[in-house]
Design goal:
about 250 residues, alpha/beta, Rossmann fold, OB fold (Dihydrolipoamide Acetyltransferase, E2P), five-stranded parallel beta sheet, five-stranded antiparallel beta sheet, 7 helices, about 35% helix, about 30% strand, elongated
C-alpha cells in the first residue's frame, strides 16, 4: 500500500516517515507535501491509498484537502495532529484514525493495519463488481478463476483438466498454459457440475470433451488432449464409462 504525509513541518514529516519505514510493514511512503495544494498534486501524481494528514497548516487546513474531492476522497485518511479537539470532526470525515503528536508507535501500526484492511476490502469489492459485470455479459460460457492477483476469465471449453495441489488447484488450458488457482478442487467441482466435467480421482477433475481415449485395465487410465495420462479411481470407473458412452 502506498502512502503520503501532509504536514507543514518538515521535521514532523521526516519523523513520521521514519516510523512508517521501521514499523509499518506493507506500507511505502511515496511522497510528502507541506500544504494542501501541494498534497493535491502529490495525490494526483502518486495515487496513494493512505494519506497522513495534519490539520493545522498555513492557508488551508487538513479538512480542506478532503473538500477538494467530490464525495469520498480516493484514499483513506489518518489525521496526525497536536490538537485533540478535532477528533469528532475527523471521524465525521470518515477518517481511519486520529493520532496525536508525538505519534505513539502502537497507535500508528494499528491505524496502518486498519487502513490496509479497508484497502483490501475495497479491492475485493472492485473485483467482485468486475466479476458480476463479466458474468452478466456471458453468464454461461465463462468461469472466473481466482488467482493470486485477481480473477482470470476462461471459457469452459478451454479447460482441459484441473489437478489438486493441496488447497490450490492447477488448471490446465487448451493452449498448453496453466493457472494456479487459490481454491480447492472441490470448489471447482461444485461450480463445474453439469458442464461436462467429471471428477475421475481425488486429485483430478477432467473436461469430458477433452478425453482422447480410455485405456482399459483394472484401474483404468484416461488420456487427455494435452497428452496427460490420468488414473481413474476404481469407484469412479463405472460412472465415467457411462458418461462417456452416453456422449
Amino acid at each position: 500500500m502506498k502512502g503520503i504525509i501532509v504536514d507543514d513541518e518538515a521535521k514532523g514529516r521526516s519523523m513520521l516517515q521514519a516510523l512508517c519505514e521501521e514499523y509499518c510493514e506493507g506500507l511505502e511512503i511515496v511522497g510528502q507535501a507541506a500544504s494542501v495544494d501541494e498534497a493535491i498534486e502529490v495525490v494526483a501524481r502518486e495515487k496513494p491509498q493512505l494519506v497522513f494528514l495534519d490539520i493545522h497548516m498555513p492557508v488551508k487546513n487538513g479538512f480542506q484537502l478532503l473538500e477538494a474531492y467530490e464525495g469520498d476522497p480516493p484514499f483513506s485518511v489518518v489525521f496526525t495532529t497536536a490538537y485533540d479537539q478535532y477528533a469528532l470532526q475527523a471521524f465525521k470525515s470518515s477518517a481511519i484514525d486520529y493520532l496525536l503528536k508525538p505519534i505513539d508507535i502502537d497507535a500508528l501500526t494499528a491505524a496502518v493495519e486498519k487502513a490496509q484492511r479497508r484497502h483490501r476490502s475495497r479491492d475485493d469489492s472492485r473485483r467482485l463488481a468486475i466479476l458480476k459485470e463479466v458474468l452478466e455479459k456471458d453468464p454461461i460460457n465463462k468461469i472466473a478463476l481466482t488467482t493470486l492477483d485477481g480473477f482470470t476469465f476462461v471459457s469452459y471449453e478451454d479447460i482441459v483438466r484441473c489437478e489438486a495441489q493441496g488447497n490450490y488447484t492447477d488448471v490446465v488450458l487448451a493452449d498448453g498454459s496453466s493457472l494456479l488457482i487459490t481454491k480447492t478442487l472441490k470448489h471447482y467441482e461444485e461450480i463445474l457440475n453439469g458442464k461436462d466435467f467429471f471428477r475421475v480421482h481425488k486429485s483430478h477433475l477432467i473436461n469430458l470433451n477433452c478425453v482422447r481415449r480410455f485405456v482399459k485395465g483394472k484401474q483404468g487410465l484416461i488420456e487427455m488432449t494435452d497428452g496427460q495420462l490420468i488414473e481413474v479411481s476404481l469407484r469412479k470407473k463405472e460412472a465415467l464409462l457411462e458418461r462417456l458412452s452416453n456422449r
